[in-house]
Design a protein that fits this description.
The chain is an all-alpha fold. It has 25 helices and no strands. It has helices at 2-18, 23-34, 40-48, 58-74, 86-95, 98-114, 118-129, 138-154, 158-174, 178-195, 198-214, 223-233, 236-244, 254-266, 270-278, 290-302, 306-447, 454-476, 479-494, 496-510, 512-520, 525-535, 540-547, 553-563, 572-582. The protein has a domain at 511-583. The longest helix is centred in the middle third of the chain and has 142 residues, at 306-447. Helix content is 80%, strand content 0%.
């Protein structure tokens, strides 16, 4: 049982400690993320001070990698390797939230762009676009649309370039980023001008004007694109005024030179248009842009160089079709990869479900085992308590039986003692009766003597009658006779003075020396009557109660003094009964 508890404790400890993060690093990463937009340099400084060897698990390593990549990008530090971002790629693309996947794919695409690997960058951005309905990081998604639009511009997909920047500007507007919104609108307007779409250009230009009214500092930045719009869509007079305002064409940038070239073509001045166009360096980045390769055949055709114009058209068509095919291939590849990712994700979810179910079953089994063990432990305790109570009950019953046996033994002994007492009482009664019979005979003999006074004879006769009634009750052993005897005795003793006098006279007849002894010591009849009550067996308290003396100490003291009895050494009752036997 103990080993089972120890095993459970070890399992719980592994679960608890195995899932812990380094709390201090989590706190530093939270701080760095909160400063990412407002103070990216401080954010990068915090991240660089985190020791990578202290990162606890793959999830924390992935978060560190993603935040550091973000901080590098915000501080305009371009990187062309995946050394920093790779832990985030490995973890978040399989286990991350939609926002974590979006950020990882965006910065992965940025690294590919830094390496000029636009194909892989586009694949990363296309995969990120698939998360548009799940992610909540609006700023990163808008930035991704702009980056993707730049690739569209590089691959001559101007309509997609315009749409991406318009969508990005709307997202920037929602999150209140006016400068980013303005930049997106400017790019979209430039694309629409290149495509010659005046209606859409007018809509975008109106939005730019509204934004400039709110933020006047954007007005100067919009002048160049307004000039491009005027040259492309305004009247010849407006175009002429714009071109005439330019004094030194050598100071113009390549973008403006392309605008002026288009202006001269609209004013039907092909020679000047060709002159300005040829001043653009054919090896510059602008010479590879969509606007440049689309303007080049127009310049040759206006100058009646039809062979060069045809070659330029063919070159333009070949490049655009090639890039369109490449983009289509990329989209197809990304679609397949997304499909494979979805399948892998489903398999991953199934594996997670199996792992979760296995974990739940394991926990359930552990709970059942713990419950069974707890039930067994409780059952064992209950049985032990019941056994202890049963043992206590049996012990109490045994003690009660012993007490009952003791009580019965005491009752038996009491009954034996009572029987013995009754036996002794019976024997004593028989002895007393025999003594009374002897006394009765003696009284009969005395009653026949003529020299006795009449009052003595009357007492003797009365005593003989009482004794005869007692003998009759003893012989008959019947209740009425005994009751009559008791009534007779009660009547005799009820007259205290008469009974005490008769009692003295009876002792004077039966024990004349006893009475004479008291008379010789000067005791009065009252005092002799008092002593005769002791002679018949009464005690001092009983004598006092019968004579109704509250305190018979005085009479007893006088008697002791006359008889010469010490007040403390001898009990007067014992003295009288002893004297009766001697005399």
């Amino acid at each position: 049982m103990k080993s089972f508890y120890v095993l459970n404790i070890l399992v719980l400890c592994l679960i608890l400690f195995g899932c812990q993060h380094n709390a201090e690093i989590d706190r530093q990463l939270d701080e760095a993320e909160s400063l990412m937009l407002s103070a990216p340099d401080s954010s990068l400084r915090i991240i660089n001070h985190i020791p990578t060897e202290n990162l606890s698990d793959t999830e924390q390593k992935a978060r560190y990698a993603l935040l550091k990549s973000m901080a590098l990008d915000k501080n305009y530090i371009d990187t062309t390797t995946f050394d920093v971002l790779q832990p985030a790629i490995d973890y978040y693309l399989d286990h991350g939230t939609p926002d974590q996947k979006l950020r990882t794919l965006y910065y992965q695409g940025r690294i590919f762009m830094n390496k000029s690997d636009f194909d892989m960058a586009m694949q990363s951005f296309l995969m990120a676009t698939d998360l548009k309905n799940e992610c909540r990081d609006t700023l990163t998604f808008a930035n991704m649309l702009v980056a993707q639009g730049n690739i569209y511009a590089e691959s001559y997909q101007m309509e997609d370039y315009v749409e991406n920047n318009l969508c990005a500007s709307e997202l920037y507007s929602k999150i209140r980023e006016p400068r980013r919104e303005f930049t997106g609108l400017m790019r979209a307007l430039d694309g629409c001008i290149t495509l010659g779409n005046k209606m859409k250009s007018d809509i975008i230009l109106s939005r730019i004007d509204s934004l400039v009214k709110i933020c006047p500092e954007f007005n100067e930045a919009s002048l160049n694109v307004r000039m491009t719009y005027g040259i492309r869509f305004d009247s010849d007079s407006v175009i002429a005024n714009i071109i005439s305002s330019i004094t030194d064409s050598n100071q113009l940038d390549d973008e403006t030179k392309l605008d002026i070239t288009l202006g001269y073509l609209k004013l039907h001045e092909p020679a000047r248009a060709k002159s300005i166009f040829e001043s653009i360096d054919p090896n510059s980045l602008k010479a590879k842009s969509f606007r440049y390769i689309s303007v080049e055949p127009m310049v040759f055709e206006a100058n009646k160089e039809y062979s060069k114009a045809l070659d330029s058209y063919k070159k333009f068509q070949t490049i655009v079709e090639s890039e369109n095919s490449k983009i289509y291939s990329q989209k197809t590849t990304v679609a397949k990869e997304l499909h494979e990712l979805q399948i892998n994700h489903l398999y991953s979810l199934q594996r997670k479900d199996r792992q979760i179910w296995f974990g739940l079953c394991t926990v359930l089994v552990l709970i059942i085992i713990i419950c069974i063990a707890y039930y067994q432990l409780r059952l064992f305790k209950i049985k032990r308590v019941v056994a202890e109570k049963e043992q206590s009950r049996l012990q109490l019953e045994n003690e009660n039986l012993q007490k009952q046996n003791s009580v019965l033994e005491l009752e038996k002994q009491t009954a034996e003692l009572e029987t013995e007492k009754q036996h002794l009482a019976g024997e004593n009664m028989m002895l007393r009766i025999s003594q009374l019979e002897a006394e009765n005979e003696q009284l009969k003999v005395l009653s026949e003597k003529d020299e006795l006074p009449d009052d003595v004879k009357a007492v003797i006769k009365e005593r003989i009658g009482i004794l005869n009634a007692l003998f009759a009750a003893n012989i008959l052993d019947k209740e009425p006779a005994a009751t009559a005897y008791v009534d007779l005795v009660k009547r005799e003793i009820s007259d205290k003075e008469k009974f005490m006098n008769s009692n003295r006279l009876a002792f004077k007849v039966s024990h004349p020396m006893f009475i004479k002894y008291f008379e010789e010591h000067g005791l009065t009849e009252y005092e002799i009557n008092y002593l005769c009550l002791y002679a018949i067996g009464l005690k001092g308290k009983e004598v006092g109660n019968y004579m109704e003396l509250r305190r018979h100490y005085n009479i007893s003291s006088d008697i002791r003094r006359k008889l010469g009895i010490d007040e403390h050494e001898t009990n007067i009752g014992i003295y009288v009964r002893k004297l009766l036997k001697q005399l």
